[in-house]
Amino acid sequence: MIYRIFSSLSSFKELKFKPGLNVLLAQKESGASDRQTRNRAGKTSLIEIIHFLTGSDAGVDSPFRANGLVNETFGVEFDLGGEKTVAERSGKQKSKIHVIGGSFLKGKTRISNSEWVEMLGEQMFGLHAPPDITGRVPTFRSLFAYFVRRQLSGAFTTPEKQATMQQSGDYQVALLFLLGLDWTIASDWQKVRDREKTLDELKKAAGTGAFGSIIGKAADLRTQLTVAEARLSDVMAQVSSFRVLPQYEELEAEANQITQQINNLSNADTIDAATVRDLELALHGEAPPSLTELESIYAEAGISLPGLAVKRYDEVRSFHESVIRNRHDYLSGELDAARQRIAARAHEKRGYDQRRAEIMGVLQSHGALEQFAKLQSEAGRMEAEVESLRQRFESAEQLEGTKNELEIERNRLALRLRRDFSEQRARLDEAILAFEETSKRLYESAGSMTVDETLNGPIFQFPMQGSRSKGIKNIQIFCFDMMLMRLCAKRGIGPRFLVHDSHLFDGVDGRQVISALKVGAETASELGFQYIVTMNEDDAFKEKIEGFDLREYVLPVVLTDATEDGGLFGFRF
């Protein structure tokens, strides 16, 4: 129970509360224009003060960091752990809380905000950090926000969420905890979602962009790895059979020199072979002309040769034959010399060929040290390439195989949830009946709450006639919150107070508003909790209901936005 909310701000309107229903009204003064609404009267500020004093973040946009309030202290006096406790906090020193009372403080009066949140979780909800849980866990702030819903967080959109941006894992963990079910199932479900999100991002990156060239597809990488391993095997076999020859370069130079010498000898043979052909032709063509042919030539010319001329021709012919014979002897000698040179070079080439064959045999069976080093370097490079491909292949296989594993995990969690619902059927039935009972007291056609076991965790649904309208949706939230108060009261957990902002009743028919307040007052009285509501005065008294006088529950402090000092803080900032 909250006893009072106060501040060091002199103009602040201190609020004092009593057990059961408490209604904080905002008036619209007579004569006020339509533009002078109650939106800045401070109704929602009450919600923000309660959250501020129970450890919420106070960022730069927090009203408690504003110039007019940053140096002021705000406080709350309430029951915590069965003991009356006072907590104070200021925007200037937002990380420190001044606390009085409560034996759980163990003598401390000034603690950090994080310590305060931890104490609140222990005292209100019995929260203790489980040592073996690595996923989502129930936290004080995520649970408390269901009991003091904030319009600024979008808490009035759907019953199961206390904030528009609240993730499935967060509200599933919180609600399973509040319903007394196995919340670790929802925690494990969020782990699956986180892994799936990471998997989707990795698969998307692996398919395109730079990351795709790092990992790639498993099928392509399998082929590349197989080919690379085969090449590496061949190179490693060469390395293992390689024999190093220290004189490799000297022998290689000698083999090159021998090849050059053989080429030179072959060129010389070509020249001598041409000389032999020329000499052989010359030998066959060397012969003196016959006398008969000479006489015939002269006769055809009509000249008669005297006997003296013939005699002289015989002498000339004898001389010519001597010349021819001497030339033949010379040509024969040259021919023999050329043939001898060719024969000598053939012998020399055979020697060179034999030596070159010996050298080439050695070079083919051995290698140079430089070649061996290069071969080893290539083997090392290929080993690194194969290892890189193997790691990429394994990563690709893991990425493509993880999806199936996650599907199996989802089915396993669905089975766990179904089993837990079966084992805890009494608690689940109690929640369903509590929601329906409250709804039935407000509508002839009662709404209901269903909790389905799906492959995405427990899904909360609230079928109700006309549930598409804003007013009906807000009444669903009212019924849900009353159901939570009933279950928490039975289990002895929770803050023992429920706070509803006027936004909860936006769009709700006046008859349903007064009926809801009557149900809230009766439920609070029955279960012994405190129900605090902020409302606009004209909305509160539009309708009347027999046996219920709302004025009995209205707080003495009444807010208004018609004047500068009519709001909760006593001034506008």
Q: Determine the number of helices (DSSP H or I, runs of at least 4 residues).
A: 15
- Termini distance? 30 Å
**Biggest pleated-sheet summary:** 6 strands, antiparallel
CA radius of gyration: 55 Å
How are strands sequenced across the largest beta sheet?
Answer: 2-1-4-5-6-7
How does the helix and strand content classify structurally? alpha/beta
Q: Regions with pLDDT < 50 over 5+ consecutive residues?
A: 34-38, 209-213
Give the % helix: 55-70%
Order of helices and strands: EEEHEEEEHHHHHHHHHHHEEHEHEHE
Share of residues in strands: 5-15%
Counting DSSP E segments of at least 2 residues, the number of strands comes to 12
Shape, principal axes of CA atoms: rod-shaped
Q: What would the average pLDDT be, to the nearest integer?
A: 83
List key phrases describing it.
six-stranded antiparallel sheet, alpha/beta, 55% helix, four-stranded parallel sheet, 15 helices, 573 residues
Overall description:
The chain is built from 15 helices and twelve strands. By secondary structure, the protein is of the alpha/beta class. It starts with a strand and ends in a 13-residue tail after the last strand. Helices cover 55% and strands 12% of the residues. The chain is rod-shaped, with a radius of gyration of 55 Å.
List the helices and strands and how they pair.
Layout: E1 2-7, E2 15-16, E3 21-27, H1 43-52, E4 73-80, E5 83-90, E6 96-100, E7 110-112, H2 113-125, H3 140-144, H4 168-178, H5 183-207, H6 209-214, H7 218-241, H8 248-285, H9 291-300, H10 307-365, H11 369-423, H12 425-440, E8 450-454, E9 457-461, H13 470-491, E10 497-500, H14 510-527, E11 530-536, H15 537-540, E12 554-560
Parallel strand pairs: 3-11, 3-12, 10-11
Antiparallel strand pairs: 1-2, 1-4, 4-5, 5-6, 6-7, 8-9
Helix pairs in contact: 4-5, 5-11, 7-11, 8-10, 12-13, 13-14
